[in-house]
Amino acid sequence: MSDTDGLGILLPDDGPDDYEWLTLSEGGHDLPRLALGRVASDGHHAPAALRALGEVTRLAPVGERLVEEAEVSALVWACTSASFIGGLGWAQAQRAGLEARLGVPVTSTALAFLEALDGLGHVRVDLLSPYPDDVTLRLVSFLREGGIGVVHGKALDCPYAADSHRTDIREEVRRFAARHPDTARPLLIPDTAIDTLAVREALVQEAGREVLTANQVTLWAGLRRLAGAWRVPALLGPLAER
Questions:
Q1: Average pLDDT over every residue of 44-63
Q2: Is 1 part of any domain?
Q3: Sign of CA dihedral 166, 171, 175, 176
Q4: What pLDDT, on a 0 to 100 scale, did the predictor assign at position 16?
Q5: Is residue 27 domain-shared with residue 101, that is, in the same domain?
Q6: pLDDT band of 15, cuts 50, 70, 90
Q7: Domain that holds residue 105
Q8: CATH number at residue 205
Q9: pLDDT tens-digit readout, 118-154
Q10: pTM of the model
Q11: Which label site among 53, 169, 178, 207 has the fewest CB atoms less than 10 Å from its CB?
């Protein structure tokens, strides 16, 4: 691994100033250099707002600064909803458009979920979604396009990213597990506004099964696009070996 390896993180700038991404590099983990670029957003979980947020023309200028000034070697769009809202083809076109503009490998949180599930060999999941019903249905459709079926799902109806960020995710996982005790499938928790990396093991214990979160798969997929083998099991769980 090169000391110069840098991973660019495109993150919505939607209100909260204490997202775990902002201090992740200070946590003592064996990580490459992380460079964050904030993309202006009102944080609204509405389809039209999310499609606008995910436009390549909106993301690329921030990404270009990370490539040119921070000299990152790969980049990930760390936003679940604004990478699945237009469907699988839209998400793939978003990635391709950014790669063409930036000249480095790119992925997104939505595509990272599909990549992680494929790597772990899962085709059926349960879903604990912070989004309103209409956006949650778009996510279910996106997963279906990617070959993933959702068996049990719950929408927490958070209208804004800040609402997701304030969610007591451990309590919500506990409630979900009580209602759906079947542990045969992983539990997906989308939305990078929900801090989960430091509590991943606790979420697994509450769920009684494997849990895949937005920030977990985002970090994993980004690291995979750098040279070398970055394994951080404390943050990535079973994905660290994939």
A1: 98
A2: no
A3: positive
A4: 85
A5: yes
A6: confident
A7: 6-111+216-239
A8: 3.40.50.1860
A9: 999 999 999 999 999 999 999 999 999 999 999 999 9
A10: 0.96
A11: 178
Residues facing residue 35 across a β-bridge: 8
Whether residue 124 sits in one domain with residue 82: no
Per the document, the length of the chain is 242
Q: Is residue 96 part of a domain?
A: yes
Q: Is residue 41 a contact partner of residue 13, using CB atoms and an 8 Å limit? A: yes
Q: Are residues 186 and 223 in the same domain?
A: no
